[in-house]
């Protein structure tokens, strides 16, 4: 009965794999729909599945986006390019959205290259409106996020404008280090 119940999921994942083989990075809407579905499946698995199954599912997602990771990281590492891209000078807006989306997903799933790039930008203080969501989401969602990093982000809340506060709180909601859970809950439930 369990195998029969999982058949639609297997069919969906097979379809996703096929779509991603021919996916164009300028077709961000297809990816956003696929990504939203995969993240919903992942959230169900996170709360009710064997950690090995979740790890394999994360690897599946990372393999899907792997063909675009290097291009996305190149875009992400170069702040001058990011600024130009925001003005639409050197990269179509849909490609920027696609790269932002796959980098955020890869960061949450601990892709080593994305984590390294996000941490480097965080430590250099090289965070701006173009990369803030990716950097904070990635850095805070790692299981080894330190208290020092957590406290540094919390300090930014006092100086942040409303849009930044929302992003910071959303990123703090993705903390996975159990040693930071209590502080995170206190902060999130007491935020003004």
Tell me what the structure shows.
- There is one protein chain.
- With 192 residues, this protein is mostly helical.
- The chain is built from 10 helices and no strands.
- It has helices spanning 2-21, 28-48, 51-77, 79-86, 93-108, 112-124, 132-140, 147-159, 162-172, 181-190.
- Helix 2 (28-48) runs antiparallel to helix 3, helix 5 (93-108) packs parallel to helix 7 and helix 6 crosses helix 7.
- The relative contact order is 0.08.
Defining key terms:
about 190 residues, about 75% helix
Compact summary:
With 192 residues, this protein is mainly α. It contains 10 helices and no strands.
Helix content range of the residues, please? over 70%
Main sheet attributes: strand count, strand direction, barrel closure:
none
- Give the percentage of residues in beta strands: under 5%
SSE string, helix = H, strand = E? Answer: HHHHHHHHHH
What count of helical segments does DSSP give? Answer: 10
Envelope shape: globular
Which stretches of 5+ consecutive residues score pLDDT under 50? none
Mean pLDDT: 85
Alpha carbon gyration radius:
17 Å
Which secondary-structure class do the elements indicate?
A: mainly alpha
How many beta strands in the DSSP annotation? 0
Rounded to the nearest angstrom, the distance between the terminal CA atoms is 48 Å
In terms of topology, how is this protein built?
Blueprint: H1 2-21, H2 28-48, H3 51-77, H4 79-86, H5 93-108, H6 112-124, H7 132-140, H8 147-159, H9 162-172, H10 181-190
Helix pairs in contact: 2-3, 2-5, 3-5, 3-6, 5-7, 6-7, 7-9, 8-9
